[in-house]
Design a protein that fits this description.
Blueprint: E1 26-30, E2 38-44, E3 47-58, E4 66-68, E5 75-82, H1 98-112, E6 123-133, H2 138-153, E7 161-168, E8 181-183, H3 187-192, E9 195-201, E10 207-212, H4 218-256
Parallel strand pairs: 5-6
Antiparallel strand pairs: 1-2, 2-3, 3-6, 4-5, 7-8, 7-9, 9-10
Length: 257
C-alpha cells in the first residue's frame, strides 16, 4: 500500500513541534537486566517500558496473564505491570484490569504467530512488561520492547514486529473533508482524536497487529493505515540499528576478553 503524501499539508505543526508524518524521539537498549534470558528498555517519546523474557522454559504453568499456545507448541505468556505513577491520574491498576488483560492477549497472540514455538514443545516463553511512563502509543511500545527482548533472548522468529500508532484529525462526529492522518500520537492526541495501533512483520507491509478502539469514518481508515504502515518501516530501521549496535558491543567485549 504506497503512501500518497500529495494531498497532506507539510506546513502544519503539532503541539510538540512535529509534522504529521514524524515519529517522536525513540531510544532503546538491549540486555538491560543481566539476570534475565532477554531484556530491553524502550522509550517512545515519554512512554517508557522495561521488558524481560524468561524461557523457553519447560514445566511452567500458565498464570493469570495473557497466554496462547497449544500442547505441541511453546506457550507465549505475557504479564504487564503499570506503575501507579506512570500516568497523570496516578491510578493503580488492579491485576484483573480489562484493558491490561486485552493488551496482554494482543501481545501474546502477535508473538505466538511470529516465534517458532514448534521448536520448544511443552514449554513457556514468559514476556514481562513494566510500564514506567505513559504518553501515548503504549501497546506499540510494548510490542517493540518485546521484540528487542526476544531478540536478546535468542528466541527464533520469522521476523521483527515493529509497531506504531496513527490517527486522524477528524473524529467520527466531525465530517471534515480536509482531515489529515497523523503518525505516532502522544497522550494528549490520543485523548482527543481517533487512532489505531498497527504492527507489521519485517520491512514489508504484512500487518500482524491491528487494534482500533475509537470510532472513525471509513474513508479515513485507509489513510490512517497507510501512514501507520509507513511509520512501522521507520520503527523497523530504528530497531535494526539498536540490534546492530548491540551486536558490535558484544563483539568488542569478546575481543577484549
Amino acid at each position: 500500500m504506497p503512501l500518497d503524501t500529495s494531498t497532506y499539508s507539510l506546513a502544519l505543526l503539532r503541539l510538540d513541534g512535529r509534522r504529521w508524518n514524524e515519529l517522536r524521539r525513540m531510544h532503546a537498549q538491549i540486555s538491560t537486566q543481566p539476570t534475565a534470558d532477554g531484556s530491553s528498555y524502550l522509550e517512545m517519546g515519554n512512554t517508557k517500558v522495561i521488558c524481560t523474557v524468561a524461557g523457553p522454559a519447560e514445566g511452567r504453568k500458565a498464570g493469570g496473564g495473557g497466554g496462547t499456545g497449544g500442547d505441541a507448541n511453546a506457550m507465549v505468556q505475557v504479564e504487564i505491570g503499570i506503575a501507579g505513577f506512570s500516568g497523570v491520574d496516578r491510578k493503580r491498576r488492579a491485576r484483573g484490569d480489562k484493558r491490561t488483560s486485552e493488551m496482554q492477549l494482543t501481545v501474546a497472540n502477535a508473538f505466538s504467530n511470529t516465534l517458532f514455538t514448534h521448536l520448544y514443545p511443552h514449554s513457556t516463553i514468559l514476556i514481562t512488561l513494566y510500564v514506567l511512563s505513559q504518553d501515548g502509543s503504549l501497546l506499540a511500545a510494548c510490542l517493540n520492547a518485546s521484540t528487542l527482548a526476544l531478540i536478546d533472548a535468542g528466541v527464533p522468529m520469522s521476523d521483527y514486529i515493529a509497531a506504531c500508532t496513527s490517527g486522524s484529525t477528524s473524529s467520527y462526529n466531525n465530517n471534515d473533508e480536509a482531515a489529515d492522518p497523523l503518525l505516532d500520537l502522544n497522550g494528549t492526541e490520543e485523548q482527543e482524536l481517533p487512532f489505531l495501533t498497527v504492527g507489521t512483520l519485517g520491512a514489508g507491509e504484512k500487518v500482524s497487529v491491528l487494534v482500533m478502539e475509537s470510532r472513525v469514518q471509513a474513508m479515513r481508515l485507509e489513510g490512517m493505515l497507510a501512514v501507520g504502515v509507513d511509520g512501522c518501516k521507520q520503527v523497523k530501521e530504528i530497531l535494526d540499528d539498536v540490534v546492530r549496535r548491540h551486536g558490535k558491543r558484544i563483539l568488542l567485549e569478546r575481543v577484549k576478553i
